[in-house]
């Protein structure tokens, strides 16, 4: 059995990234988090853009949502990061138009390579295509694409791409059925 010595681990994100993260945490914590839920959406979009986010003027980010690195966030028209969403976007998180990421969901673009003794950081983007919905407390792993119109059920854990217009659930998430919208 190989020995693991994490005393030699080096964070590859770098000092510049850490200073930007510190500044971002202070700005969001003082100027956005105190606001009730979705109040002040224009103000919060401006703060996110100030730190490099590409966010449509109709997108909504709730005050209690956590965005790790705004520069890696893209949000389309009428997309939403709801209460207590954890957007750990070390790599890009791209939300299409009309995307909902519900309360307490975790979007995680980074992990560690467990096949290497020092467990180096590995990253891959998350893409959530138009009209998709990630329900409450769901986990979406790095490198995953949630297809157009797909639904990730509450508390599901997604480690592989989700097909367009599919409904998935469970841990690990499995196909439940096709999503079919009722005619109005």
Automatic annotation (TrEMBL):
UniProt xrefs under InterPro entries: Hexapep_transf_CS (IPR018357), Hexapeptide_acetyltransf (IPR051159), Trimer_LpxA-like_sf (IPR011004)
Entry keyword set: Repeat, Transferase
Record-linked PROSITE patterns: HEXAPEP_TRANSFERASES
Record-level GO cellular component terms: cytosol
Database matches in PANTHER family: ACETYLTRANSFERASE C18B11.09C-RELATED, SIALIC ACID SYNTHASE-RELATED
Similarity remark: Belongs to the transferase hexapeptide repeat family.
The protein's name in its UniProt record: Putative colanic acid biosynthesis acetyltransferase
Organism: Bacteroides faecium
Lineage, highest ranks first: Bacteria, Pseudomonadati, Bacteroidota, Bacteroidia, Bacteroidales
């Amino acid at each position: 059995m190989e020995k693991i010595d994490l005393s030699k681990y080096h964070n590859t994100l770098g000092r510049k990234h850490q200073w930007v993260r510190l500044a971002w945490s202070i700005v969001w914590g003082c100027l956005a988090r105190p606001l009730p839920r979705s109040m002040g959406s224009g103000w919060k979009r401006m703060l996110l853009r100030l730190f490099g986010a590409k966010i449509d003027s109709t997108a909504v980010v709730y005050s209690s949502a956590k965005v790790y690195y705004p520069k890696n966030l893209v949000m389309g028209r009428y997309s939403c990061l709801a209460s207590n969403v954890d957007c750990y976007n070390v790599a890009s998180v791209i939300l299409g138009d009309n995307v909902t990421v519900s309360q307490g969901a975790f979007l995680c673009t980074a992990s560690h390579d467990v096949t290497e003794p020092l467990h180096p950081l590995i990253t891959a983007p998350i893409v959530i295509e138009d009209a998709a919905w990630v329900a409450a407390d769901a986990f979406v792993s790095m490198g995953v694409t949630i297809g157009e119109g797909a639904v990730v059920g509450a508390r599901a854990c997604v480690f592989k791409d989700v097909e367009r217009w599919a409904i998935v659930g469970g841990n690990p998430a499995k196909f439940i059925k096709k999503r079919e919208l009722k005619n109005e």
